[in-house]
Structure prediction request, 214 residues.
Amino acid sequence: PALRVIGLTATPYRLGQGLLTEGDNALFSDIVAPTSNAELVALGYLAPLRSKVTDSSIDTAGVKKRGGEYVEADLARAADHDDLNAAIASEIVRRAEDRRSWIVFCAGVAHAEHMRDALREQGVIAECVTGTTPKRERERLLSDYKAGRIRALTNANVLTTGFDAPDTDLVAMLRPTMSPALYMQMAGRGLRPKQHTDHCLVLDFAGVVSMHGP
Prediction:
């Protein structure tokens, strides 16, 4: 009877459920002392994000929805086109300027691989991480990225949570989502304070900033 359960999260809500304190079977009864990103930025615990409207964008007009989210196969087909990938890669390079560490969130494995190739064609040292990347290979790629030997990491549903690379100074959103939690998790990869700059640039090719807010 004395047991107390405490959960720690930056996203206390889930798609289709709402707050983790809502519903008859909610595990938690209340949210204690929430804070905001703005407050944590002001205190120096987080780096601010600066988003820019992009010239290129992914069109989700014909993408089907299921359970409050885009159907993954449809989304991948809408996002992954050679001409669009090349245009996005070119724009990332142009807007990145001297930024060192880029994370690119893509709509599927093939899309992540194609964006890696498009960035390489722009002269960028880029690699791709997916759910099928062998563990040892993934560890090597993430280590090289954190050490600055890889400039851009493309991924499909891998680096959204549990990945901490503080010096990430550019996040490219190529994965449209209707989930505010997933949006915050992707954007959160750029929130860590950095050694070489005071902010992280967010390039929103997926329209997630306009959908969910800054």
DSSP finds seven helices and ten strands in the chain. The two ends are 42 Å apart (CA to CA). The first strand starts at residue 13 and ends at 14. Strands lie at 13-14, 18-19, 49-52, 65-66, 69-70, 102-105, 126-129, 152-155, 170-173, 200-204.
